Amino acid sequence: ADEGKGAEDGAAAPTGGVDSGDDELDGEVLLELGDDDVPPEDDDEEEGEDGVDGAGEGGAGGGEDEAADNSATVFTGHADAVYAVALNSAAEHADLALSGGGDDRGFLWRLSDGSVVAELAGHTDTIIDVAFSADGSLAATAALDGVVKVWAVPSGELVQTLEGPSEDLEWIQWHSKGNVLLAGSKDATMWMWLAQTGKCMHVFAGHEGSVICGSFTGNGKAIVTGSEDGTVRLWNPKDGTCTHVFAGKDGHTAPIVSLEVHPTKALVLTGALDGVAKLMNFAGKTVVGTLVHDKGDEGAAAGGDGDDDEDGIGLASVECVGFCRSDAHHWCATGATDGTLKVWDCSSMRLRQTMKHEAGIVSLQWDRRAPTVYTASVDCTLRSWDARTGECLSVLVGHSDMVLTLTVSYRKHFLSAGGAAGGAGGAGGAGGAGDAAGDG
């Protein structure tokens, strides 16, 4: 893979301001960072600040040979692929995890020992997303049966069944300040409910394809969605109206598959199936710039729109995106199916670093304190990277097959879902579909 070479490596010049599986899986493995793996605190002196690239290619700083399995806890309750996990951020429930999978079941379970707290049964198809409410008192599960179920924490008692969408659900998200729940559907609509009463507040219609990703803005006063139709829409949650559409030259030419809203700025980062990401300012309703993660075999001119392959065939899909949480660095990252992780400067739109897994990246998250990115890959590993230098800080292993999702707790624990074809057990564990075990 090419290492970062600045704007000439496919990044567009800024155009606006920035201020405003049939495989059966081996369960979920909680991987814990040791003292040597904790990312370094940021400092004023950093490598790569002027576009100088770090090593960034593979296993520097951590290797799979160093540990056959460094999982701390393994949950063995699921009988099929695990597609979604979440950690409870409330102090009183800090030991609780939530998961959902291809066995149509959800579970509340303990991080400390992997024991089941409650089984969440009732869905009739695969659970594809799960989430805890902001106060940690409720859990939500969304499934391909088109239904969202809300459960009490920690009892697992069913509180509400939220219905409405006519097709599969794609994602769910809680509001940051109340028990309001959003869900995007394959039927091109998004729904918003009062979770405890089940009342539908609004149905958001306007997309012409599946609403694949979406999020409340940082202040909760707007909603941003990305769709299979290639458009990004901005919505008013108070009345359900669409206030702006990023389409045409301002949108994507391929389905949008990933999206993240900046926690404090009026910025949204989107990733598409054709290897293109876009940074948008939703306050100014402008496109800040285009980030060409994968230029294709024929290459793309700086500022290109990713149209080298009209159908996106052969290009690496940008499966995950994210903003650096450090105030000192106005950076973002894109992860793709070609196994590359790229870090970009949001001010100059220059590529800073390129790092690489051995197979596609499915999820990324930035550390809250340091310029460190965590990634999950279908190469069966989790990795942490120093975004300043491109160095791989650690490789966390424990899954015997692809890792499908990743979330990071405040306490620096990884919670991931991974797999083993044919129902093989996890490293160090007994066999059986969905079964795994690890030594802490």
Name the features.
WD40/YVTN_repeat-like_dom_sf, disordered N terminus, mainly beta, WD_repeat_multifunction, Anaphase-promoting complex subunit 4 WD40 domain-containing protein, single chain, 4-stranded antiparallel beta sheet, 440 residues, disordered C terminus, globular, 41% strand, 32 strands
Summarize this entry quickly.
This protein has strands at residues 28-32, 71-75, 82-87, 96-101, 106-110, 116-120, 127-132, 138-143, 148-152, 158-162, 169-174, 180-185, 189-194, 199-205, 211-216, 223-227, 232-235, 242-246, 256-261, 267-272, 276-281, 286-292, 318-323, 331-336, 340-345, 351-356, 361-366, 372-377, 382-386, 392-396, 403-408, 413-418. The chain is mainly beta and 440 residues long.
Mean pLDDT: 80
How helix-rich are the residues, as a percent range?
Answer: under 10%
Major sheet: 4 strands, antiparallel
Strand content: 35-45%
Low-pLDDT residue intervals, each spanning 5 or more residues:
1-67, 298-312, 420-440
The structure class reads: mainly beta
Verbal overview:
WD repeats lie at residues 75-119, 120-161, 162-203, 204-245, 333-354, 354-395. It is found in: Cytoplasm. Residues 20-52 have a biased composition (Acidic residues). Helix content is 0%, strand content 41%. It has 440 residues and is an all-beta fold. The strands form eight sheets. It has a four-stranded antiparallel beta sheet with strand order 2-1-32-31, with no helix packed on it. A hairpin with a 5-residue loop joins strand 25 and strand 26. The protein is globular. Residues 1-67, 298-312 and 420-440 have low confidence and may be disordered.
